[in-house]
Each structure stands twice: as C-alpha cells, then as structure tokens.
Amino acid sequence: MFWKQGLLLLLGIMTFFLASPALADWTHPLSFSNAELSRRDFSGQSLQAAEFSNANMELANFTDADLRGAVMSASVMTQANLHGADLTNAMVDQVNLTKADLSDAVFKEALLLRAIFTDVNINGADFTDAVLDKAQIKELCDKANGVNSKTGVETRDSLGCQ
C-alpha cells in the first residue's frame, strides 16, 4: 500500500514539472525553419534560441529583438532590419544580409562564416569575439564606425580593424 502512495506521489511530481510552462518554453524553442517570413514584424520580441534555418526573412523587422542563441543558418535576410537586436551566440552562417540594417546590433560570439554583407549598415554594431573569416573582416572594416549603445564597444575595435 505504501509503495502505491509513493508511486502516485512520484507521478504527480513528474506531471507537475513536465506541464510547467517555463520548462516547456525552454525545452521546445520556437521553430520557423524553412518558413516564408518576408516582411514579418518580430520587433522587440524575445526569440531566444529560436530556429530560423533556411527561412526567407527578406524585409523582416527584428528591431530590438532578443535573438540570443538563435539559429538563422542558410537564410535570406536581404533588407532585413536588425537595428538594436541582440544576436549574442547566434548562428548566422551562410545568411544573405545584403542591404540589411545591422546598426547597433550585438553579434558577440556569433557564428557569421560565409554570411553576405553587401551594402549593410553596421554603424555601432558589436562583433566582439564573433567568428568571421579574414575577407569578411576586411569588408566590414571598410565601413565600420560608431559605438554600440548597449555594450559601449566601438565597431572597429570589435572587428579588430587596423
């Protein structure tokens, strides 16, 4: 009889923790992979660890969005607005960012290999410890200026520009 009460208590505890909304959010991040998200407004949203792989986010608005740890690999983000977004530890590899607004964004420790930065605005962006190749750094240093309003880091310093 005692073992039945113990089993019921254990099942009750497991049900409580598995049904907890906070745990559900942590274990199942938002997924927008392979989605059509052009012109979508994500401004100011908390999208930590969200998945946007292979998504079309042309002209999408991510102004001041929390994208820490987000995965945006192999996506199209032409003319997207990432002004003031936090992409710390994000995977932004192989992303087409042509004509995107990256001003005042934070890319600390972000993976940016093979991302396309043609005609981007990086005024005040922070690339501290971001993973970029030498050609990308040279391209970004040619247009780097400003200081990030959140981190206080100069864009040129965060890229290691000479």
CA distance, first residue to last residue: 75 Å
Major beta sheet, specifics?
A: none
What order do the SSEs take from the amino end to the carboxyl end, as H and E? HHHH
Mean of the pLDDT scores? Answer: 89
What fraction of residues sit in β-strands?
under 5%
Oligomer kind: single chain
What helical percentage do the residues reach?
10-25%
Name the poorly predicted regions. Answer: 18-26
The assigned structural class equals: mainly alpha
Contiguous helical run count: 4
Q: Using the CA coordinates, give the radius of gyration.
A: 20 Å
Shape: globular
Q: What is the β-strand count?
A: 0
Characteristics:
23% helix; 4 helices; mainly alpha
Note down, in words, how this protein is organized:
This protein is an all-alpha fold and 162 residues long. Helices cover 23% and strands 0% of the residues. The chain contains 4 helices and no strands. The protein has helices at 2-19, 21-27, 134-141, 155-159. The longest helix has 18 residues, at 2-19.
Briefly, what is this?
This protein has 162 residues and is mostly helical. Helices cover 23% and strands 0% of the residues.
Please render the helix and strand layout as text.
Elements lengths: L1 H18 L1 H7 L106 H8 L13 H5 L3
